[in-house]
Amino acid sequence: MKENRFELFDGLIASAGKALQRIKSDKMKKYGLGSTHTTCLCKLGRAGKAGVTQKELTEQESIDRAQVSRVLRDLEEKALVRTEGGTAYKKRYHLTEKGKKIFAEINDISLEINQYVSREIPEEEIRIFYQVMERIDCNLKKAERKYCGGMEGAAEK
What we know:
The chain is mainly α. Helices cover 68% and strands 6% of the residues. Helix 2 (35-47) crosses helix 4 (65-77), helix 2 crosses helix 5 (97-118) and helix 3 packs across helix 4.
């Protein structure tokens, strides 16, 4: 029987993802925010003045459309985001000053975690890891198109 590296990879990614979600949730409890709120706040914070639409959040973060809608409504109610123009799905969301402060805190925590988890790994190995992960991500997207997009047997792009 052939070794199934995908199962190992999938397990490692799932485990790492769960640990990150728990850390995000724990650190944001004091604001009444969960991990998806944190993910959306970070995306908005990194977007800066340009802001982000609900559609962009849904596509870029692979979060269900209904969940993104609920999270954005929660963030608006907590005065962490404001909207600008457009119809429901096209309006742009921006962080308020209060939202920017929380984003800065999240960012600081992320940097601290990054330093903690990579402290014993040589920089060259970190660089290679990210190169390999980018390649795996690209290949998984190709596989998704092939196996989920009705492109069975189609030539890879």
